[in-house]
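Researcher: Structure for this, please.
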Amino acid sequence: MRRYAVLVIILLVGSHLPASLFAQEPTDSAAVLELVTVPPPAYFEVYDTPSDHGGNITLEWGLSPDDGDGRNNVTGYQILRGEGPTGYFEMVGEVLKGTTQFVDNTADEGTQYHYRIAAVARTGLSERIMAGPVVSRQQWFDRTRANLLVIAVLLVIAISYYIYKGAIGSDLYIRKIAGLEAVDEAVGRATEMGRSILFVPGIQDMDNVQTVAGIAILSNIAKRTATYETELDVPVSRSLTMSVGRETVKQAYLEAGRPDLYNDDIVHYITDEQFGYVAAVDGIMVRQKPAACFYLGAFFAESLILAETGSSIGAIQVAGTAMPTQLPFFVAACDYTLIGEELFAASAYLSKDKKMMGSLKGQDAGKAIAMIFIVVGVGVATLAAITGNDGLTAASEWLRRLFSLNF
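Model: Predicted structure, token format:
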């Protein structure tokens, strides 16, 4: 009886106690530490990350007064995210002390979010402060690449101006390129000697811009060989290059008024294998002894093998490539060498087409503008370093960023 009496008394006393003594304060999913008197961050703001593809929200805050000093030293910050000012918040990140920015790259584009942040100490969490709402959206203009827009506009203006000048018949000066000036000499020599011309458009496929440039030059050479009735031989190492080369030569013979001289065997496929191709071309050189050899395109280790064989048979040789490691071999073993850009300018140079020459002049004008900016930038940076002037330093930095990939 005594035990039942004690139990009844406990139940009666418990029923009259306030419910707040037993209630547990609701917490967020990530809140695992007890709230203490750690000062929260000084401020907290969120915004859509600028110049991005969407799905990113940037959070910035001021350091807690206890971050690096104070009674309860802060060890980091805890970041929570929810889709409303109340309700469930999930933890999306934790960062170390001293950090003032966080990018949430898990946000869904078009969804509205609210964020909470708390300073974390060894003894617990600070009060959480909230920021929002914020929505992530994709930006149509990337301001970090505005410098590229400026450069593109300058190039378009320069190219358009010179194309217009060429279209109205203005004389456009382009410096002489010795290797291209020698094309007529090489074709004429082969014609007088009654021997063939060998043209090698590199060993890469048509997805390589150097191969495209080589085929463009082949068109001009084919017109001359058709006019002079000189035999042309074009061995290739890619099937697609063969198809494009045949169409190019066929069109050139048609424009020269000699379609009867064209046959598909002029452009013929050998093999994709690098040194198997080189061995076959060397065999053609030794057997047929062409009077002129053209190597125009992308080349690798085979460049010296081809050039040495051509030199041994006494052929006049014109080479051109944008491969820096192969240029010394061509320079040493060939009569004329097109270096880098000269290969790409060859089509306009040989055809004398006013619009193509205008485009070439416009590109050169764009490069001249870039060189002027570089020289001015170097000068301003030098003066800024000598004088320490803030205005010159700012101008130097602006000029440097103008030609950078990103601001």
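Researcher: Any notable elements?
Model: Confidence is low (pLDDT under 50) at residues 17-34. The first helix runs from residue 2 to 15.
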